[in-house]
Design goal:
- By secondary structure, this protein is mainly α.
- The protein has a domain at about 50-155.
- Helices cover about 80% and strands about 0% of the residues.
- The protein has 8 helices and no strands.
- The protein is globular and about 60 Å long.
Length: about 160
């Protein structure tokens, strides 16, 4: 079954009464955890993006503390899990500064973790991919912000 296009959904939603729209939103939230998280973000945290980014950074810190350092395979899987979360939260906030902040924090945490990650090719590749993503997103910012973020990036 093919999903409907946004252009088809938008007029249908505009014609519905508010009560029915609320019910549809609640049904979407019940259907999938991601929908519930995104709806919660839109309702409660979208007006405080810096606060949301700080919460994500604290979550990243907690996940880095729980990294299994003895088993490289599990460590790699855990790092990818952290990155999936960052990608999801970056979609919530949109491209730009919040996404860059989260990715830079991930790279800083990886550097500070004490893991000899530069000895493992898979970890080096993960790290370099994140640096590439950061550079790509920095290029879309204003020149002043680009300068500031490039300065921070050189420290990594």
């Amino acid at each position: 079954m093919k999903p409907f296009a946004i252009a088809e959904i938008k007029p249908a939603l505009q014609s519905l009464p508010i009560k029915q729209l609320k019910e549809l939103c609640l049904q979407l939230a019940k259907y999938k955890v991601d929908n519930k998280e995104y709806l919660g973000f839109l309702l409660f945290e979208s007006n405080d993006i810096p606060g949301f980014v700080e919460k994500v950074k604290m979550n990243i810190d907690e996940q880095f503390e729980e990294l299994p350092k003895a088993n490289w395979y599990l460590t790699k899987k855990s790092l990818r899990k952290i990155l999936r979360g960052i990608t999801k939260y970056s979609r919530y906030t949109g491209p730009g500064e919040p996404a860059i902040e989260m990715l830079m924090h991930f790279c800083k945490q990886l550097n500070q973790s004490g893991m000899p990650f530069r000895e493992q090719p898979a970890f080096v590749k993960i790290y370099e991919q994140q640096l590439k993503k950061i550079n790509t997103q920095i290029a879309s910012l204003h020149e002043d912000l680009q300068f500031d973020y490039h300065k921070q990036l050189r420290q990594l």
